[in-house]
Every structure is written in C-alpha cells, then in structure tokens.
Design goal:
SH3 type barrels; 2 domains; 8-stranded mixed β-sheet; binds manganese (II) ion; Fumarylacetoacetate hydrolase, domain 2
Length: about 400
C-alpha cells in the first residue's frame, strides 16, 4: 500500500488505509470537515482549493457537517478518497499540504453528521436470546418473527450526540415486577448497548425500495454507537409499541465516520441464517464486518463483543428499512443493535453481563462487582478491524460519562 509522509502515522491504527472523516474546529473558527491521519487532522477544503479554487468538494468540506459531502454520492466519495491518499502519500504534496495538517490535541471535535432519521435494530442472535431468557424465562427466547426479519424501531435522531457528551441519568416511570404500581424517579438500571452504526450518504425515492445489493451506493460509512438504555423505564413502557423514553434520552456516536472503502479487507461471512430469508433480503450468504469491539468501564475492559457473530447483515437491514417504500435521506443513521457474541465475556450490555442484575460482573476489579451504571461512571467503546494495508484500523471511540439526574 501507499505509505504516508505524515510523521507517526505509518503503522498506527490511523494509517493511510483508514482516513476517517469528521468535523472539527480550532479556537474561534467555524466547524468544518477534516480527515484523520495518525494524530493529525487534515483541513480538507483549503488543500482542495490549491489545485482547484472552484472545487465542489472544497465547498462541501467547508460546511459544519458531512452531509453536503455525503450527498454528492458514491463516485465523489471514491474520487475524494483517492485524492486524499495521493496528497498524504506522495512527498511531492508535502510542502503545500503540511500547513493544513493540524495536531488533533489542539482541536475540538463535533457531531460529524446532521442525523436525519435514526433506526436501531436487534440483529445479534446472542443478544436477542439472552434478553429473551432474562425477561421471559419460561418461553422460547426468540419471538416467531425474529429469524424472518431484522427487528428494529425508529429512534430519536435529535438526541444522537457526539462522543464525550455527558449523559444525564434519565428520570421516568419505573415499576419492578414485584411492585404494584409505578414510581417516578431516576433510572436505577441505566445501561449501555455496544453497537455499530451505518451512515446513509445517498438518499432514495419515496415508494422505491433499495435492494440489498445497492448497499455500497447508499451507505457512506460506519460509526461506533452507544445506545444508552434505562432498563427499568424500558421494561415498564415497551409493551405493546416498543422502546420510547427508555432509549431516547441519548445515543452517543463516534466523532469519526470511517468510510466504507476502508473496510474492503474486513468483510466476512456471518454465521448463517436458517430459515433462508425471503428473497428481498438477498440470495447470498449474509456478509458482515470483522470488527472487534471492547467495552471499557472506568478504564477496565469488561467485554469484547465480536461484530462478525451478528445474524442480520448491514445490507439486509437497509433493504428491510426500505422494502415498504420508505425513502432514505442523507444523514440517516441505522445501528446494529447490541453486539453480543456467544461467550459470556462477549456481551455488549450490562443487562446481559450481570444477567438481569442478578450476577454482578467485574468482581475481581470492583468490591462486590457491578450490575448497572453508577453516577460518575465512564464508558468507552473501542473498535478495530482489519485494514487494507495488512494491519488494523481503528474506528472512532465512543465515550460517555454518567451525570446525576436533574430534577
Ligand atoms: Mn440498541
């Protein structure tokens, strides 16, 4: 692969085969689009204007979100990436590019996408089975529809927040199974869900389904997602219409959107689907990404969920979202649902790690172990995948600290 002249970047998790996009600002300046290389961010617009003062890409990159760039479509994404690799890879561009290469430590990072619609799925068989066993111990863990369609719900786009945004403990109605009536107050079962999110760049027409094989024409890139969940609020409210206030108070995403092309070496067969899904969900073996996730609580790794163990693929989730004719918009975000592997140390939520709060985890680290989140806790989700250069790439981390409820 091409090597980069940017100091410290070659061989790192943000080498030239990664190049995630984000939105940054330095003191007093307007937020704008940059690309990360090593521990630096390249301010894209001024570099693009050196060669072409009327560059359409530069105009899109001067805006405070990725939406204008994403709306230009997949061919523009490919051209832009090839150009960035050329600029950061060939010494001939170094002198005029270096002034626009800014140390990450000096910058403020922002929410990278103006989120249009937000959908969250439930695509891990291990997660769905665990939750079924915890909440409905006397029944089949999976409901009858689960292996026929990717179950999902529409979430709240306006409360999707960037990594490092504090998460205020939500208040609401809670009713334990042992209580006769609900009480109001701060959630006592605040939880995380370690997920992967897919960002739609190119929209689609109302009434026209998007076929599963058009995935790469529409999906621009991938983000890390923490779908914060108040289990007590959720458990009381969710029948019969699904998650509402137990999920909508905050959903954190990474600052960096890793473009789909950076995952060319990461595609892998998912475990397999039985029964064979209906034809609109694809005639082929479902393919997913070999992304390793780490859930870190207060500096300690508590779980390592593997995305390659998911049941439903990103392309199937996209096809399902639009099969009724619902249209896509630039900035749509859909997330995988909690990623949980088959092993206990691969569970992507505290609900599962503590088996409904009954079996504290992390007892070797914390006195008495942990069940759900406490005020002051910091959760960090880390993600890596095979890169096209033979090493690994990192996605942006998703960090959040829990603040006490506000009354
Ligand atoms: Mn979720």
């Amino acid at each position: 692969m091409t090597t980069t002249w940017v100091e410290g970047a070659a061989g790192s998790l943000f080498d030239i085969d990664n190049l995630p996009y984000g939105v940054f600002s330095s003191s007093g300046e307007q937020p704008r689009v940059g690309v990360r290389i090593g521990d630096h961010v390249l301010d894209l617009a001024p570099v693009a204007e050196i060669g072409d003062p009327a560059s359409e890409l530069a105009a899109a990159w001067r805006t405070p979100s990725l939406n204008a760039f994403m709306a230009m479509g997949a061919e523009s994404w490919r051209i832009a990436r090839r150009w960035i690799i050329e600029v950061l890879g060939d010494e001939v561009h170094r002198e005029r590019t270096q002034p626009h290469l800014l140390p990450l430590a000096d910058l403020t990072l922002h929410l990278p996408v103006e989120v249009a619609d937000y959908v969250d799925f439930y695509a891990s068989e291990h997660h769905a089975s665990n939750v079924g066993r915890i909440f409905r111990p006397d029944q089949e863990p999976l409901l009858p529809n689960w292996r026929h369609l990717p179950v999902g719900y529409h979430g709240r786009a306006g409360t999707v927040v960037a990594s490092t945004t504090p998460v205020v403990r939500p208040q609401g109605q809670r009713k334990a199974p042992t209580e006769d009536s609900p009480t109001f107050g701060p959630s006592r079962r605040l939880d995380i869900e370690a997920e992967l999110g897919f960002v739609v760049g190119t929209g689609s027409a109302l009434g026209q389904p998007v076929p599963h094989d058009a995935f790469a024409d529409h999906v621009f890139g991938v983000v890390g997602v923490n779908d914060w969940s108040a289990r007590d609020i959720q458990a009381w409210e969710y029948v019969p219409l699904g998650p509402f206030l137990g999920k909508s108070f905050a959903t954190s995403v990474s600052h960096w959107v890793t473009p789909l092309e950076a995952f060319d070496a990461a595609w892998t067969d998912l475990p397999g689907q039985d029964p064979t899904p209906l034809p609109y969900l694809g005639p082929d073996r479902a393919r997913g990404l070999d992304v390793d996730v780490e859930v870190v609580l207060n500096g300690e790794v508590v779980s390592r969920p593997p995305y390659r163990t998911m049941y439903w693929s990103p392309a199937q989730m996209l096809a399902h979202t639009t099969v009724n004719g619902a249209s896509l918009r630039t900035g749509d975000l859909y997330a995988s649902g909690t990623i949980s592997g088959p092993e206990p140390g691969q569970r992507g939520s505290f609900l599962e790690l503590s088996w409904g709060g009954k079996e504290p985890f992390g007892t070797e680290v914390w006195e008495g172990g942990r069940t759900f989140l406490e005020d002051g806790d910091e959760v960090r989700l880390r993600y890596t995948a095979p890169g096209t250069g033979g090493g690994r790439i990192a996605l942006g981390e998703v960090v959040g600290r829990v603040e006490p409820a506000r009354g």
